[in-house]
């Protein structure tokens, strides 16, 4: 039996879904996190061993779809005829939620209302007479609190009861001409009047939503015109500081100790094997995967903190603060949601851009979301921050804000190239209430990321490292490369031409080029490959609690300056994302022209940024420009010229539009 | 007048939505934002308004506030 | 000894590749990305809401 979960955005559908099924889907305390439907079996102890399939749907305010995710919901409940619907109603906003409820009831599918967030109502002393509400709606009403999984057993029992029964609608729109705008409008007004009637009968409110409350005082500071961004910066810095410089490395230290112990044990027991086999297993597979896995605690702590931030309602305020800047470059606050999700993984981030109605805006968002440092890039950031800079936390924060800056610049560029004038856009976003973040939710979210991280390390990263190790061990005549002659290996000969291109960026070494190339398969590979090609197994010091074993030592082995390291880091962060993310960009953009344009922009950004960082940094630290300055300059100037050319073309197009507009107006 | 020149803390009655964007109009409707309904300006943050419509809190920008015609 | 070590390597790498192949067949877009498996929808019907899986372009009936 299929049971659909439907309700307004941010009414807690996904949280309820998780509570029912025991799944751990990403839920955030703001609207628009779920953009696609998903299904899972309801836990056996709740369903008394019956096969009940719960279907989580994106939030919708009504049956008439405005966004693609709303149309998923309405077409699912209309066409796929689930056996029952659980309508999740936000108990704190009954007067809006019941509009959708009455529409759902008209479908004739047996329904149970889950009156969610009942706990918040208790605090505000809002009382809802559930028995009366059930009577008015003609379907069972169950009070739930999805966060603490309260009321789940009653809910499922009620669902089992109603399945197969007929559902009557308390309000029937009747036969109206659906093509007549006016008729629909009148009917909808009547529906709202009907809802108002119910609400006045069942709800008693002490605190009105329109009154100023503590939340507004908090908003006045957190979403302040000038303070908003600095506060966000401090928050992000704190997240990086705790996860990358304090708590994270402390745990990582222990973990790396274990990994090293394991590697030594294996090395000891395979001493008799041939050197190639030994190094493939110990350096390539265990060393490479171990180097990546060593960063697991940092990633876990980071995601624990980000989950807390999302859950407490702060992220919606960040969207409000950023809207002002995004609007100037033709994006809107709506683009923030994909970007915040993109800090976890660029793929769901790019997919979330689907909620944006305007096509150009949607494509631009899908193109720029990968600039946010995702989870796979964190080990890369942590490695370079620790190896080359004394305080790791500012590097992470800087990369984060550099990402935002490139997004804004990229959007501006896109606007110019497409020749679109900033149109008058409207922004409306529901402000969720602040609440104490749930440690349980954050913990589950963290474990979910950890599991994914380990799976990725054990599969893709492992295979890549093994391949890198093999390619590094053989030359083209399939002879083992002797020690000291690594530059004749297959890997070196493939990576060397690329290394030439990287000379102006300060890292024209084939090892670094190889690591950057494997990064396109998965960004963690940068760390894994560096570990393999430089035979460094321990990036986190066991004795000194420092992130990287003898920071200067690692820096020395790689043979690059801090400035070059920063350039290399930024190159890896701001070039095109991994292939999987490019695939996601492709399916959201629906245009080859945009896809290739996006990839070109990402390459250009990565190259130009690395060039500028390296050359300007070197000029500042040593007084002369770095290697390959002229060559790099030519490349960057050429890129700028192309961009200027495209902008000129875009402007011509914009003028043309304007002209056409005038003609049309006449 | 429009909501954009309203004062903080005041509840207004919506008289209409001034936009050619029908989708926006319909969307606002589903939130309960249509002529005859009440809307309260709760506060202003970051050059945008926090308003309360029915029992929901929303952040709307100046453009949208300017499109919502209200009377006291 | 070489044989045993070789066997272990083949086993480890083989099972990793096996996992990747299996996951890809199940339509997982990004292995080890916590939301990579969220879009399990396949392009079944014309109204289906699938917009994942690179190359399948049946976007939902967009409201124009």
Number of H- or I-type helical stretches of chain A: 27
Low-confidence stretches of chain A: 542-547, 662-666
Radius of gyration of chain B: 11 Å
Helix content of chain A: 55-70%
Find the structural class of chain A using helix and strand composition: mainly alpha
Q: Estimate what percentage of residues of chain A fall within beta strands.
A: 5-15%
Most extensive chain interface and residues per partner: A-C, 56 and 40 residues
Looking across the biggest beta sheet of chain B, what order are the strands in?
4-3-2-1-5
Number of strands of chain B: 5
Mean pLDDT metric of chain B: 88
- N- to C-terminal separation of chain B? 9 Å
What's the shape of chain A?
A: globular
Give helix and strand order of chain B, one letter per element, not per position: EHEEEHE
Architecture overview:
- Chain A is 62% helix and 6% strand.
- Chain A is mainly alpha-helical and 666 residues long.
- Chain A folds into two domains: 2-204, Rossmann fold (3-Layer(aba) Sandwich); 229-654, no CATH class.
- In chain A, helix 4 links the parallel strand 4 and strand 5 (111-116).
- In chain A, helix 17 crosses helix 18 (392-418).
- The longest helix of chain A has 42 residues, at 228-269.
- Chain B has one domain (3-71): Ferrous iron transport protein A (FeoA) (SH3 type barrels, Roll), CATH 2.30.30.
- Chain B contains two helices and five strands, in the order βαβββαβ.
- A five-stranded antiparallel β-sheet of chain B has the order 4-3-2-1-5.
- The longest helix of chain B is centred in the middle third of the chain and has 10 residues, at 22-31.
- Chain C contains one helix and no strands.
- The radius of gyration of chain C is 18 Å and the shape is rod-shaped.
- Chains in contact: A-B, A-C.
- Chain A binds chain B through residues 61-62, 64, 66, 92-96, 99-100, 185, 188-189, 192, 209-210, 212, 215-216, 219-220, 223-225, 228, 316, 320-321, 323-324, 327, 357, 424-431, 433, and chain B through 9, 11, 19, 21, 23-24, 26-32, 34, 36, 40, 42-43, 45-48, 50, 52-61, 63-64, 67.
